[in-house]
Amino acid sequence: MNSAAFIALDNGCRGAAAGLLLMFAAVLFRNRNMTSTMRIGAALAVAGAASAIIEAPGFPSQWPWISLPFIALSSGGSVFFWLWARAAFDDDFVLRPWHRGLWFALVGLTLLASYGAFTRPAASLIDRALTLTNLVLAVLAVVQTVTTWRTDLVARRRRLRVTVLMGTLTYIGTNAVANLSPVAILAWVSPARNLANAIGLCLLAVLAGWSLFRTATSNQTVTLTPAGASADGRSLASIESDDRSEIDPALLNRLERLMTQERVYRREGLTIGSLAALMKLPEYRLRQIINEGLGYRNFNAFLNRYRIDEAKAALADPSQKEVPVLTIAMDAGFQSLGPFNRAFKADTDVTPTEFRRLALTQAPPKPQSEARNFEIGQSY
After folding, report:
1. Of 72-86, 108-122, 263-277, 279-293, which range is least confident?
2. For the domain 3-217, what is the CATH code?
3. 45 Cβ partners below 8 Å, 6+ apart?
């Protein structure tokens, strides 16, 4: 295949990828109830489309001002990718101002380097630093995926981790390695390398679009745009629909007995696998019971619901007012004070110490019989 054919295929793949990604972003932006995950996913799609366009053979690089918006949009793609992984796979993720600051810093340095604001030695160092930053953000996205994969109860989201995220990681990692190499890798020389890059981006765009529209047509929770969760980590959609027709009530009762009577949530290192073994069920089946039957999206949120309820009862018990908070947390199943404090405050909006103080200083209501006798005495 000659160079002209490579270029024609390259432009075709990039055009298809840009069109699909922009359509994907438009569908997300049209949603009036956009979540953080939806906004980040749409921004990531726009960044991917800009990257496909600006790296296309024949792009008018001699017109720097035309390149400016495309460089600005595409250079922040690695930040959006990392934030999307955080938001899509962590139900407790909150977008912070410093996340935006990181994006502005990366885009600013990229624009300055692209338009010759640094001398040659400094420009080379800046370029390598930017490439390393993109690689680090990709690795952080993978860490987020791996560390929370076992506790994820949403089947579609678990599959998405393996498909879209790993495919995107391969795409970013390949380009980072190629850019960091002191000498161009012979197997990836232009235009063959550019064509492979374009095909990979096109496949990712097709996969993202297929995932979105396939999920939309089945009226299920979109993993790229997850439904909101309640304070205890349960899916609002699951709670509102309360559709448990496919879950055996006997299994739900057995699980409830394990949690409330045997208090297995207290066991150190309890995992979804060990709990499935106690119930004598396959792990995937237990995930389905907790997710679809009880509405929880995360196994840790499911366990913490019971642990926090026990801790609240102990903190409000006057006979245990001298028991340290750490002891109560450990007895309930938490391994350290930090995770307990964060989970407790997320559930009650106060710290465990403040909760205990309020609970113990609150005057208990008078029994109805006493109140009635007082009123009768007053009437005389």
Report:
1. 108-122
2. 1.20.1070.10
3. 21, 22, 24, 25, 28, 208
